[in-house]
Structures are given as structure tokens and as C-alpha cells.
From TrEMBL:
Biological classification of the source: Eukaryota, Metazoa, Chordata, Craniata, Vertebrata
Keyword Nucleotide-binding: no
Protein name stated in the entry: Heparan-sulfate 6-O-sulfotransferase
EC number: 2.8.2.-
Top EC class, one word: transferase
Gene Ontology MF annotations: heparan sulfate 6-sulfotransferase activity
Keywords on record: Glycoprotein, Membrane, Signal-anchor, Transferase, Transmembrane, Transmembrane helix
Homology family: Belongs to the sulfotransferase 6 family.
Reactions catalysed, as given in the entry: alpha-D-glucosaminyl-[heparan sulfate](n) + 3'-phosphoadenylyl sulfate = 6-sulfo-alpha-D-glucosaminyl-[heparan sulfate](n) + adenosine 3',5'-bisphosphate + H(+)
Membrane-topology annotation of the record: Single-pass type II membrane protein
Gene Ontology cellular component terms for the protein in this record: membrane
Reported function: 6-O-sulfation enzyme which catalyzes the transfer of sulfate from 3'-phosphoadenosine 5'-phosphosulfate (PAPS) to position 6 of the N-sulfoglucosamine residue (GlcNS) of heparan sulfate.
InterPro entries cross-referenced by the UniProt entry: Heparan_SO4-6-sulfoTrfase, P-loop_NTPase, Sulfotransferase
Species, as recorded: Cariama cristata
Amino acid sequence: RNFYYITILRDPVSRYLSEWRHVQRGATWKASLHVCDGRSPTTEELPSCYTGDDWSGCSLQEFMDCPYNLANNRQVRMLSDLSLVGCYNLSVMPEEQRNKVLLDSAKENLKRMAFFGLTEFQRKTQYLFEKTFNMNFISPFTQYNSTRASSVEIDEQTQQRIEALNFLDMELYDYAKDLFLQRYQYMRQKEHQEARRKRQEQRKILRAKQAHLKEQGENSSSTDYIGNVERW
């Protein structure tokens, strides 16, 4: 079988706020084993942000203040090869080096995927998916801008704090957006070139048919004239 890896990225601030609202309603990631190099992280490597059964009702400030919150830079972490940095063991290498390795790995894995899309560009995502896999969806994608994250009003300082907490995701998203739009433009140009080639081919076939019909008409006129001469 051929397996294709695909993913959808989202604006890091919107994604972060969406996860906070999800956790605030009682969602947990307890079922996630976070297995890396054959083992799950220890509680020392990955402490919990809360002590109870869940973190329901937590404020955005509490959510941002937890230094172990896996919501921070989640997209980079989930797309990168964690074994390159010793998984969840933060003592393997300096933080700056670790961040660079994770970001480079995430970019490389994203680039090598068969397909990726962006939540903020639903129609373009649908178009690229259909062209990539030569298949069509039954109905067009709809761009929903009214989400739980969009309903959260934050001030400029909070916005900057979230961007700082997700600085790796911010850089990854900028890279992904640029690559995504390049692929979209390339596919559109390719589609236009193919359509132009088909039109030229159709015109060529039409001219050939017209020339053939004209030749048949001339031959028919000549045959009729010779036949009449013989009768005369």
C-alpha cells in the first residue's frame, strides 16, 4: 500500500485559544501516551499543569502561566522528530539548539508530506487536495471564520504573550503559508497551461476536419463535372 501523510495547520494564536477553550470545558490529554523512542516521558520530564481530574474552568492566564503546557508550540512538536532532541528530556541539549532542531525538522517533514492545508484557506485547501489526489469532494468547503477562538476577545498584551509562547509555531506557520500559496499558484498555472494546450489541440483537430471536408467537396465537384462531360 501507499500511505500518504497529510495535515492541516492553523493560525497559532487561534489554535492556542481554541485549545484553551477545549481544556476549559474539561478536555484532557490523558489518553495521549506521548511515546517517543519506545517509551513515554516520566513525570519529571513532563509534569502536569493541574492536580485534579482535569483543568476545567482554568483562566487564560493560568493556561498561559504553566511552563509545561503542551499547547505551547504544539504544531511544531507534533510535526517534528522528537528523537532528534532526546524526546521530552530537556537536559540533552541547550534550549536554543533544541528549538532550532525542532523547527527545522517540522519544516522538513511538512515539506515532504504529500499534502497539507491551512484552516484559514479552506477553498484553496480543497482545490490543492483535489488536484494532488485527482479526486473531487461532493460539496465545496466553507470558510468558517466564526469559531470558539474568534469569540475570545484579547488585548494587545495577551496577543503578544500568546505569540511569544508559540514563537516556533508562528515561524512554522509563516513558512507553511508561503509554501502553501506557492503550491497553489503553481497548480493554477499548470491548470491554465493544460487548458490552453487542450484548446490548441481542439483548434488543430477542427482545422483538420474543415480541410478534409473542403477536400471532399472539391473532389465531389470534379467527379460530377467529368461525369457530365462523358454524358455530353
